[in-house]
Design brief:
The structure is a single chain. Helix 1 runs antiparallel to helix 2 and helix 3 runs antiparallel to helix 4. The chain has an eleven-stranded antiparallel sheet with strand order 6-5-4-3-2-1-11-10-9-8-7. It is α+β, with helices and mostly antiparallel strands. Helix content is about 25%, strand content about 45%. The termini are far apart.
Length: about 210
Amino acid sequence: MRPWRLMVVTILLWWADAASGAGVSLDAVVARLALTVPSQTHAFCEIRDSGLLSEPVKLHGELTVFRDGRFLKRTHHPDGREAVVRVHGDTVTIDSANDERTFSLARSPSLAAVVQALRALALGETAALRVGFDVAVTGDTDAWRIQLERPDQLPGGTVDPGPSGDVVRVTLAGHGSRLVRITLARQGQRTILELERAGSDRDDCV
């Protein structure tokens, strides 16, 4: 979609929401978040929590989303290590401690869900979200929340016969045209990414 057309759509959707007094729609949120530049980088604070951990793990890094569907996630560990995850098409490359691994995106249901969601936002494609997930939108234009849910799947597309019919749940939260939080929940584990503008500096995770 051309930038000027996207701007017109965004204005019309904002006006429709304001005129109706109703909660924000999926179309309105996605139109605001669609990238009009080649890429966008966010500094992030990451919190990983699991029943297997004595306490949550807190990390920092940068997440870059490209308009062509690529992703780059650079995570800085407390011991000085740096892990880089690159997603190009359906190929994932992880480079950590001079050890590089490459595998299919389908092998990681959690990562695949997040990538599909962020790609849809970057491209302004609500249809991709509705086809790939059960979608629930709450809030208003100032503070919105999108919950995306689908059955957990193993490589090959078969549903994971987990103990309670496990699902992969991705929750996106933001304000206006800004995405501020990504939460991923799967099989008792939860990862939260608090996003900030690139170049910001945080010493701790809230």
